[in-house]
Specification:
Layout: H1 4-12, H2 16-27, H3 29-36, H4 38-57, H5 64-75, H6 78-89, H7 95-103, H8 105-143, H9 148-157, H10 168-177, H11 179-209, H12 214-242, H13 244-262, H14 271-285, H15 289-300, H16 305-334, H17 339-361
Helix pairs in contact: 1-16, 2-5, 2-16, 3-4, 3-6, 3-16, 4-5, 4-6, 4-8, 6-15, 6-16, 7-12, 7-15, 8-12, 10-16, 11-12, 11-14, 11-15, 11-16, 11-17, 12-13, 12-14, 13-14, 13-15, 13-17, 15-16, 16-17
Length: 370
Amino acid sequence: PYERLDYGRGFAATDTDEYLAINPAVLFGALFVDRVGPIRAMQFCAISGVLALLAIASGAFWLLPLAALCAGLGYAPPNPASSPLLLELAPPAKRSSIFSLKQVSVPLGGAISGFLLPPLAAIVGWQGALLVLALVGFSIALAIAPWHKPFDTVAESAANGTTGATSPHRAFASLLKSPRLRAIGAMCFGFAALQYTFSSVFVVFLVTRAKLDVVDAGALLGLGLFVSIFMRVIWGLLADRLGDAAVLLILAFVMAGAAFTSVIVTAQWSYSALAALAVVFAGAAYSWNGVFLASVATVAGPKRIADATSSTMSLVFAGGLIGPLIYSAVVWATGDVGLGFGVLGLLALTVRAWVSWVLWRGSATSDHRS
């Protein structure tokens, strides 16, 4: 049975520690990458993930906050490290598709882990499975070491060695002063609020509203996330043809439509209809990131890309933290697990409409890719 009190408390605490660690850390991401180079930053991410896995595998409850802290710190540098490199190396006509292809690694890594870890845990136990994954992370940190000097050379040559990395305060101030980046930041906040809520509670939503069992509900979430791997590439290719602004507007309508549809889901819905909802929802709400990062890179340019990426990513993670809390508050107030999605869909559509208004007013760049 659905318990509003238990659900509200439990969900609000699920990822809070991790996102509280990510948000301030990502504002330092540009400075960190500028100081140590992109490959050293990626090695730091891998080792942070290893430490998080080791803390969880210890089985000590008091180490869980440390695990969340390490996981959050490991999330901070990747995009500030990769965006200047991709802006320098990617042809402008293929920028969105290349940024999107890079973002495929996120759901792909999750899918591989989800596929391999359960049978591995059945063989060596859950702690053994985490230790194997930690070994993989450590091996990755070692394997990318030879790329340190070549990629540092590329990063230093970009815009005469200037990536725009300044203090976190100046990074965020530059975001607020730029109408273009401010609009993109607001948009990604609304998109991320819906994305992270979808991935966190969609299974609970299907169990509660559609009366599916946990296995069937989890399978639908897995299907949606699997499809999102390909949709990230498709949206990137489409953005290279139509422009980032147009594709981000389409994405806003699609994800908002899926969120609004969730409000009317009932136990009478067929499994195929629920599967279609999962695919459409994930295909938009979980697939916008590459087009967004390409848009930030284009608007910011090489001399501001580090600050622009770190400051806008801080808003992404803020959306990932606040979106689920908004959902929990709506569910707590109404007892309706579908209405929370509807509220967040309205938020995503509203902020994207504001971005369109900014573009129409001419405050944004005249570049069709902004």
